[in-house]
Amino acid sequence: MKFMLAFTETADDFDQRNDPATAPVYWGGWSSFIDAMAQAGVFESGAGLQGPHTASTVRLRDGKRLVEDGPFADTKEQLAGFVIIEVPDLDAALDWAARAPSARTASVEVRPVLSPMSGPAA
User: Fold this and answer.
1) Are 91 and 14 in contact (CB under 8 A)?
2) 105 Cβ partners below 8 Å, 6+ apart?
3) pLDDT digits (tens, 9 = 90+) for 31-49
4) Which residue intervals define the domain YCII-related in the entry (predicted)?
């Protein structure tokens, strides 16, 4: 089964990415985690995201596009990145999520990936 692990991080976590004193430890933790998934053969794909200050939120209301700077969610945690893994079941996905660096300071959402949709019947 394929699962998406969506990683959230706190503002302090995002700050660690660029601070010369903390960036090596921050990125080292993520590299070790991704490498472990790759070595286990469960890593499919993924990407980190730039900080929430670069986000835009789009809504369509009454036929008009509304764009708001920043993420929509008003929370202490923001989406930081995601990976797609293929594992036997939810328990295995939860085990991998618990190993993510962001699980210690924020959270990891685990969600099954939909199977590709087939086109209309001929």
Assistant:
1) no
2) 9, 10, 12, 13
3) 999 999 999 999 999 999 9
4) 35-114
Predicted TM-score of the model (pTM): 0.84
Q: Cβ neighbours of residue 71 under 8 Å, at least 6 residues apart? A: 52, 55, 57, 78, 79
Write out pLDDT tens, residues 77-89.
Answer: 888 999 999 999 9
Specify the CATH number for 2-112; select among 3.30.70.1060, 3.40.50.720, 3.10.620.30, 3.30.830.10: 3.30.70.1060
